[in-house]
């Protein structure tokens, strides 16, 4: 057995590196399309679809990744300042645990509440679902639209 010199600075450096790794894992966006919190993939957990939201002058566009979901299993709720996307990813066929080598696909209910940056007119909203991407177009209310004022400079 060899004797290794103990260094308190090395202990502190190891702890710092472990804390950095912990925060990177928590903050860094996951490479997968859905995140599961509080559980292993086979246990419960919450599926959170990734989104993209941007402004198109008179409307807000929200895109969500939800592959493997049937249109009939998607539920949208729109208020003046909030969008809620709910749905369920159903398993197509049953596979016994003992027959499964790898299982990384996630199944179950999902929900995502998205605060909107401006008030929208929910009566004129439109949604399309193609190739696993849900696109929601939300027209801005008249008061929230940008106004162009011409000013003559003399």
What can you tell me about this protein's structure?
By secondary structure, this protein is mostly beta strands. The protein has one domain (33-144): Immunoglobulin-like (Sandwich). The protein is 13% helix and 35% strand. The chain contains one helix and nine strands; from the N terminus they run H-E-E-E-E-E-E-E-E-E. The protein has one helix at 8-27; strands spanning 34-37, 46-49, 51-56, 59-65, 74-78, 82-89, 108-115, 126-130, 133-139. Strands 3-4-9-8 form a four-stranded antiparallel sheet, with no helix packed on it. The longest helix has 20 residues, at 8-27. The termini are far apart.
Layout: helices, strands, pairs:
Elements: H1 8-27, E1 34-37, E2 46-49, E3 51-56, E4 59-65, E5 74-78, E6 82-89, E7 108-115, E8 126-130, E9 133-139
Antiparallel strand pairs: 1-2, 3-4, 4-9, 5-6, 6-7, 8-9
Short overview:
The protein is mainly β and 154 residues long.
Secondary-structure element series: HEEEEEEEEE
Derived structural class:
mainly beta
Characterize the quaternary organization of these chains.
single chain
CATH topological fold name: Immunoglobulin-like
Which geometry do the CA atoms define?
flat
Tell me the number of structural domains: 1
Rg of Cα set? 23 Å
**Biggest beta sheet attributes:** 4 strands, antiparallel
C-alpha termini separation: 89 Å
Helix percentage range: 10-25%
Name the average pLDDT.
80
CATH class: Mainly Beta
CATH architecture: Sandwich
List low-confidence stretches: 31-44
Total strands: the figure is 9
Tally of DSSP helical segments: 1
